[in-house]
Amino acid sequence: MMAVGGKQELDVRVHDWLRKIKVAYAPGPGEAEVHRHVERLLAQFREEGHRVEVDPTPGVDLVLTSARFGEPVPWREALMLTARRRFGLENHPTVVTLLALTREQFDQRLQALAEALGKDPPDPADFAYPGLTPRAYQVLIEQGKRGGPILTLERLVQAQTMSIRNVLFVEEGARAVAYHFDLVGAHPCSDHPDPDKMYRDVMLRMVTAVSTREITGHGVVDHPISRERWASLATPAAMLRAAREFDRRGFFTTMVRISDLVEVPALEGAIASQYSEGCFATWEPGLSALITTVTGSARPVDKGKIGEDDLAVIVGLQADGEGALVRHVEGKLNAPPSSEAVELMDMDSVLPRIWLDEEAEETVPVIRSKLHGHRGVAAYDPTCAEHVFLDASYYDYPVSCSTEAQARAIKAAFRRSEALQNPDDRRQIVFSVLPGHGVVIVEKWVQGKEPFQVIWEAMDRGALVVSSHVPQGRLDYRRSPEGIMVLDEVGARTWPPIRTAS
User: Are 147 and 170 contained in the same domain?
Assistant: First the structure.
């Protein structure tokens, strides 16, 4: 299988499904600081054939605005929350807020955050910023422990701008790079010595985000599962145990609640009040269905401490691909499944099915259990696990969770798995890392093992080394002298380097 990236060849790869979009710029505070960046950026949109408007009009796909670093934007002025009403739009356009710092300012802020995060215990006063709630320090510290000072900086910017998607331009003289912030904590960097190519990269990342769509339009099928049938199944209890096992190993990151960061009376459908920290699912032969965790966007769900009301049953996909088909359980809360429900189900459609034993009435997917979290994999043992690559363009232009593009990427990657296409392959674990997002890990059926047991036992013996570090772009795994495959972020964009306290 061809590896992605390489230190000799770093030409970017663009998705073939990008579309032409309509973009507008609505200046906000900090317009003067980002003015030159906006001009160069809009020029790239025009050159690529996109429609650039003076003011947002109906049907606009992308609205750019500006903010001043460190100055909170009142929620009544935040375009992410007010663009529809302010401009009379029917749709919810994607809003991206632009900010700018000098290289010196950027380094100073990261250094200060690194020193604050390095204190034991951390001092809440070090994280008291304008516009944030008194309890926001808890989120900033937790995020910093997960992803370092850059992730704390990202959450601070998002909270103060009241904008989930931000582009932070870091300037050093005439040169600039741009960091891209999104919901799950991604922070890839657009970096090129040629300014036109740098701004083109910024433009392409925005077009990528706008060109795909969410696929969370789930439907409910008739004939709910009786309470008695549900109680007879072993899988629900196995899911609850798996949650505790992964929680004990620190796999799931802490849920981020918007109300813990800022006071916002109403989100107006622009974004959920919180976002969850991953999902997992396993196949139930008795129902010919996938038992999965529910979405955490509708209500808080601690994936490490779930109950039966935090489970959903997926039996298929909508004909239009816009969501999953769900079967309810009598007497249960029946919240919608995880936002990744489509990809969790659809990946089985291009993989073999197997017979569990001679007495089985029907075949089951070759994948038994699936685990997704905002983590990376630092190393793995190639004798028991296989890493599969996404299509090349997804490393240079990552996509977001719950989107059609991500589901397509996951399906294609696992379709290429040698271990899954050959059920007799002795490797029982297959995984893929989504840059800027996290990891998807699957296991095959192993006699005598509970759902997910193969995965957590591999973690325990060091055959699958899960890390809090999530690569932001290209990656590969190189064989160590000991025969272990170790993460190598080939072609990583490293200017300006993120300086931290020693």
Answer: yes
